[in-house]
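W.,

You were right to be curious about this one. When I first looked at the sequence I had no strong expectations either way, so I just let the prediction run and decided to look at it fresh. Below is the sequence, 358 residues in total, followed by the output.
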Amino acid sequence: MRKRRWLLLAALMVCLVFLLSGCGKQAAEEEQPPLVKSVVLGAEDGAAADTYAGTVRGRYETNLSFQVGGQILARNVSVGSRVAAGDVLMVIDAKDVVQKANQGDAAVASARAQLSLAQANLSRYSELYREEAVPAAVLDQYQTSYDAAFAAYQNALAEAAQGHNALGYTNLTAGASGVISSVTAEEGQVVAAGQTVMTLVQTGELEVEINVPENRLADVPVGKAVQVSFWALPGSASGTVREVAPMADSTARTYRVRVSVPQPPEGMELGMTASVSVTGDAAPAGLKLPLSAIYQTGDTPEVWVVGDDDTVRLVPVRVTSFDDNDVLVDGIDAGTVVVTAGVHRLEEGQRVRTEASS
């Protein structure tokens, strides 16, 4: 009986030890400083810049077409072909053009014959008029006939010259050096005069085209300096806004903006993907913080700053701008650790834990 009592007492003592050790751990856990969400301010937080995706384009893009119509006999280039000024790009059948040139020559010969007849009649009746054999009205009639024949002859000469000029239009030549960016006609196709058959992009001056929404148009005036980076190339280059479209696109409601790159990086080619960083001229100074970091009980906004000893203290700041869920503040240095959540539960001098220290 006494042995059983001793065993029961020993079991109770063991349970009591475990209970006391658990309470000690719980108390130790409860005594740990609270974990707070924080952010380290950086100097770049104050930069208010917008980035737009763009494409490398040529400053001069020319739609090429024949000045006369006909069937295409030969296409000497393809998309991506590099050409020099004067190169023959396409040739159309010249048979119809030659016939029109011959028709013009025949019209000149006919007009010349009519002019010769009118001149002979005018000379004959001028002699008769001097001999007073015919009245002045008859002479005026033949003078008018001569003038009309002379005008018809001049018109025939002009039409014949136009027909001969058209013979040179059967070859489509490049007006400048560049690269062919598109071809819209093939051999055997009949094209009309003025119909676009290909596009030539001059590669001597490349630039970047972006699309800017109307609420950001004031940030990209002509002459504005921007930074241009390329997905396929390292580093970045300086650019300048050269042209802003006067009207927005009817579908996207954005404005087309051309950015020149005076010193393009090596390897910059047509069609490359680019990013243009534009900083607003009226961007307010300050460091960006979440709006939840602001603690304000009076007229002065404050933030909780975590010191080197992991204690928090209130620091007054000046709000320079609000933007949705963010705020720009002044009066605090970059690199400062600021509490961004639960600011109304903290006390001056309270020890806390941050994500970096836990």
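Here's what jumped out at me. The CA atoms of residues 291 and 323 lie 9 Å apart. And, maybe more interesting for your project: The first strand starts at residue 38 and ends at 40.

Coffee later to discuss?

I.
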